[in-house]
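// run 5 | inverse folding | seed 20
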């Protein structure tokens, strides 16, 4: 059911037309966000919806009735408004301010304060988390706390429709999230309809069911966050460069703002010259002079990360730790590595046998660093036949460093290309899965990291058809093959 139907609403302040033919509907229990740059008409639209401004043209229908047919009192029972700027009502306490919200429910010439009124005020104050400040003068509260008092006043009205102008203005991030989670709960549990103006597009995307985007008083987009959050659209509406990312846990887009001006990263020399290589007693550490964007399956720094340190740590053959991640973090800290900017892998293979391969293309350079052991060699196509894996020495750790800008697709393709090259090296070295007696495709605990400088030339792809993919394939293949031979030699000589 539509709680709000807005049809061709236009509005002008004197000769300044600020809204043009705005049309949309809002359904019951929906959280409906209004977004747009400063001066695009958001507050004016909300003021028209809240009856603060008279309608000049078009129509607004609420619950099937024209908005103008609601008396002030009827309207106050139906809708509560949290305006953008609210002056502190000096002299009032928190409780007294929230009690004003019950005005709409008072009847007769000499209204009486009922138990229901008392309860509604108490609940509203509890819901915004201000019970402890109930007798405090609101002029003694912080901006964020005061905002919560006004929200409690709106809630005490027990409205069916909440109209909010930047509801989380002045709030710290904890309070914002708390309040917005609460709004979602009210919307879903109490079928409360919420129309709110947001400035933060990521907050709006995360919490709103649908969004309306205004630009110079016109609707430029209307739909779900998934539909609307397109970099080109946001670029044209907000004049800001953005890139769309996936939220880690919710099926909502996250927009990352791109800085217009970047410090030019001065890169001297080839790719390898930008790293220092340190061989310590039990690890290899590669340190970059500037952070690289990395996609990895590493124990530390998995997924996409920016990193300056790449550590391949040799652990004893019988290393057995229930919480290897925490233990590895302690190890990194103990050795002075910045954990948040480190990609950390483990291996039981001798790190002295690490192999590096380098290729310098016309527009890029690729550097592959591989340690390999095959005690745990396995044929991926047959792995399902094994009930459990014995852990022996042998895992293949691959690090690929690339000078260039990689798209996310290119990162994934680089991982595919490197994996295929590794598998081919295993095949050519005739490495067998000892359980199934078939060719091994990898080991049971292989690890990979693809790191790119994100400067220079852009590579949209890194499959084997591209020059970059060819270089990745060759360097990883050669390095893996050589590392496998060194591993075999060490085994034969011991
Ligand atoms: N009372 C007023 N008299 C004249 N012009 C006004 C008045 N209120 C707003 N305007 C103008 O109307 C336009 C839209 O203002 P509005 O406050 O609706 O925008 P907004 O999108 O809410 O902006 P913001 O993000 O800055 O809050 C602006 O150009 C503003 O200057």
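// decoded
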């Amino acid at each position: 059911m539509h709680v709000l139907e807005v049809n061709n609403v236009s509005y002008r302040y004197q000769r300044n037309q600020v809204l043009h033919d705005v049309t949309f509907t809002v359904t019951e229990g929906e959280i409906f966000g209004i977004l747009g740059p400063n001066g695009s008409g958001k507050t004016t639209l909300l003021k028209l919806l809240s009856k603060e401004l008279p309608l000049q043209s078009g129509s607004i229908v609420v619950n099937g009735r024209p908005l103008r047919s609601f008396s002030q009192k009827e309207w106050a029972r139906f809708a509560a408004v949290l305006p953008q700027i609210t002056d502190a009502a000096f002299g009032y306490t928190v409780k007294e301010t929230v009690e004003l919200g019950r005005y709409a429910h008072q009847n007769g010439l000499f209204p009486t304060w009922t138990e229901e009124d008392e309860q509604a005020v108490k609940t509203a104050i509890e819901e915004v988390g201000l019970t402890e400040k109930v007798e405090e003068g609101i002029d003694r509260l912080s901006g964020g706390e005061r905002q919560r008092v006004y929200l409690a006043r709106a809630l005490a009205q027990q409205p069916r429709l909440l109209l909010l102008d930047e509801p989380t203005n002045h709030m710290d991030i904890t309070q914002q999230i708390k309040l917005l989670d609460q709004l979602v709960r009210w919307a879903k549990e109490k079928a409360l309809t919420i129309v709110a103006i947001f400035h933060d597009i990521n907050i709006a995307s995360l919490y709103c069911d649908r969004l309306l985007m205004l630009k110079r008083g016109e609707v430029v987009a209307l739909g779900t966050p998934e539909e609307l959050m397109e970099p080109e659209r946001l670029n044209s509406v907000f004049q800001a460069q953005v890139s769309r990312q996936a939220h880690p846990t919710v099926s909502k887009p996250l927009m990352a703002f791109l800085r217009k001006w970047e410090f030019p990263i001065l890169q001297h020399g080839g790719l390898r010259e930008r790293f220092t290589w340190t061989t310590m007693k039990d690890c290899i550490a590669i340190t970059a002079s500037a952070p690289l964007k990395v996609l990895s399956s590493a124990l530390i720094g998995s997924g996409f990360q920016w990193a300056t340190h790449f550590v391949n740590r040799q652990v004893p053959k019988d290393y057995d730790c229930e919480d290897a991640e925490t233990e590895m973090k302690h190890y990194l800290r103990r050795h002075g590595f910045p954990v948040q900017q480190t990609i950390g892998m483990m291996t039981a293979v001798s790190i002295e046998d690490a192999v590096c391969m380098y290729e310098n293309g016309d527009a890029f350079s690729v550097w592959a660093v591989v340690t390999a052991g095959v005690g745990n060699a396995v044929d991926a196509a047959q792995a399902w036949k094994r009930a459990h894996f014995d852990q022996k020495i042998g895992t293949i750790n691959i690090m690929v460093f690339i000078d260039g800008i990689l798209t996310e697709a290119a990162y994934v393709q680089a991982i595919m290309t490197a994996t295929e090259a590794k598998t081919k090296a295993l095949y050519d070295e005739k490495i067998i899965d000892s359980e199934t007696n078939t060719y091994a495709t990898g080991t049971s605990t292989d690890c990979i990291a693809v790191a790119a400088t994100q400067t220079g030339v852009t590579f949209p792809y890194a499959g084997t058809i591209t020059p970059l993919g060819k270089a990745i394939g060759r360097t990883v293949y050669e390095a893996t093959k050589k590392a496998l031979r060194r591993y075999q030699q060490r085994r034969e000589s011991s």
